[in-house]
Amino acid sequence: MKRIYALFTFALLMIQVAKADEGMWLLSMLDKMNFKDMEAKGLRLTKEQLYSINNSSLKDASIWFNNGCTGEFVSSEGLVLTNHHCGYDAIAELSTTQDNILDNGFWAKDRASERVPKTPMVVTRVVRVDDITDQVLAKLAGVAEKDRARKLTEIYKELEKKATEGSHFTATSREMFKGNAYYLFVLEKFTDIRLVGTPPQNIGKFGGETDNWMWPRHTGDFSMFRVYSGADNKPAKYSPSNVAYKPLKHLSISLKGYKEGDFAMIIGFPGRTNRYEFSQGVAMATDIVDPSIVNLRDIRLKAWKEQMIQDEATRLLLSSDYASVANYWKFFDGEAEQLKRNKVFEKKAAEEKAFGQWAANREEYKSLLYDIDQVYTLYKPYALQATYMRECIGAPTIMQLASLGFSLDALYFERDTIMKNKTMSKADKAKRLADIDSNIAKTCQLTLVALDEFNYTDRIIAADKKIFLGMLSMYYKNIPSSQWPEVFKKIASKIKNGNSEMVFAKYTDMVFSKSIFASKEKIAAFLKKPSYSKLLADPAFSLYKAHRENYLTNFKPKVDEFMSQSLALGRKYIKGLMEMYPNRYFYPDANSCQRLTYGTIRSYNPKDGVHYDYITTIDGVMEKYIPGDYEFDLPMRLVDLYKSKDFGRYAMSNGKLPVAFLSDNDITGGNSGSPVMDGDGNLIGIAFDGNWEAMSGNIDFDQTYKRTISVDIRYVLWLIDKFGGASHIVAEMTIIE
């Protein structure tokens, strides 16, 4: 058993020689894996400067930003740079028609002017990383697969408690290689985060959805926040008396620039990859799941945009949701296309064929590929259920609001059960009923408070009706009738001669006219005087309840079983691959923990006869500029500065102002906002996107096409300094010229 543990540890720590730029590596293991290759490519730092527990290192400068992005400290006063789209929710929430910082930009003139986000944010620093593989696998020995997840939770809780006892730190454990290795991350979390600066969104989102995932790119995708702490430099709840946090390490900023072939590394928190996916999973993503998500999200985006372009207040209210849905609408569209273009299914199938030949005479593995195929074959008829529950039934705002009724539904159901109980004493029954009534009152009050912040205007309702109608039609067309809940069968039974649109339109009108969840005022009135019978009779709630119960009863068990079986088979497959290729080195999938990727500044050829340079300039911004356009408009101040060529010290030697650049680093979602650093560990840019030709990157790394798109730090500083007039913010930073 120890030999197998050693095999996994060795495989995790080593560099994959055949694809030197591929991989998302744990910083704590750099001394045993890629360090020599990194030095050969241009790294000029020591191992301790990259990762250290006892001294400040680059790991301390890169932080997990709001549990979904990455950011980096760029001053000794807790100043953080991240992407504009990572700060978008906070910026949009703080914007009103009277103080529209989303459109106009914002630069705090001093600490007192910094804005406190309406929704609290969190910044997380990695303190250290512990290898807990041996401990976890020893405790899992003999545990049945069906009990593995529960047992893992217990093990994590025990180890995390032990790792943080006597400190203010928290800890989280991560599974690697689908359960062949485990690491524990000790963390420090800060919750007093304030907005320092943001460019107008026609800079921060320049190019909109047209340019999203595309190169050449000209987006100033950045925003700035500051982390505050107590006087002891430890995390503290928001207080006006808190002070700027002093990080262990902040990044110096280089204005020296770069050239093609120069070393570039990124330290961030990549979200999820699935590089060890089976060919059946690739086919399912390409042919079934991804196209469904694209089509369902398209309904929301069209309905919202129709209202957003007509009214500024509606645009501000919906802008954050629109941006979030649109981002991955395009991602899933691109992923399906590039999985086909890059022949990922064929590649995976060939790898599995070779594995099958190797495994033919090995008892542990000889039936593995057959077992995998059986699991996917059984799951395929239900593969859309989870997607449609989330992206279809749960998508309209009215259905999201109706789902709030589930807390009350559970309480009322419990109340009815107790009322019918003939064995309970009167005293016990009275006490339990009083407790439940108290909980009902508290639930209603908490929901009322939350409702105060919710905007459900006439325009949003108009869009929501179109979304609701579109989702009903999509469900009817794409989910087999044998999988429908009874309530939907009853609605569909009225369809004659293919007149589904008319039937669903009439049903939509009925729901929005009668449901208490169709307006903020009706919801508030209901919560002030709740009624179980009224809740159960509500058409929106009854529809959502029927679909949810249908999913939970009939399909979630199948989804859970599929996930459990595919995970176990994946664990065995990776173990087999490592035995099959003892001289090949593997790395774990991304899972929202701190990783390092490295490579070079690099251009590429997307197709025959086409070459994309590795850098763009402000000249390209002006070439795309369309006055008044939703995606390509610009502030007049930027246009004027361009005309005067007032680029200051941020210009390149040729006099041009750089905007964005390419590197062949291996990143994915979650890396947004990550620092891109040169061989000396100086900040040269902020990663914000991947390229269209490599949208299959979550499942397969393509060395030919994979690129990271980053905003040049010189463009960022120019926008803060020259455009924003906030030179005092730049003065905080350590600049290397």
CATH topology of the largest domain: Thrombin, subunit H
Radius of gyration: 27 Å
Structural class, from helix and strand content?
alpha+beta
CATH architecture of the largest domain: Beta Barrel
The helix content is 40-55%
Separation of the first and last Cα atoms? 54 Å
- Report the top-level CATH class of the largest domain: Mainly Beta
Secondary structure tally, helices: 28
Low-confidence stretches: 1-20
What's the story with the biggest beta sheet?
Answer: 10 strands, antiparallel
Q: What is the residue-mean pLDDT, rounded to a whole number?
A: 93
Give the domain tally.
2
The overall strand count is 21
- Strand-residue proportion: 5-15%
Shape: globular
Any key phrases for this structure?
seven-stranded antiparallel sheet; ten-stranded antiparallel sheet; alpha+beta; 737 residues; Thrombin, subunit H; 2 domains; disordered N terminus; 28 helices
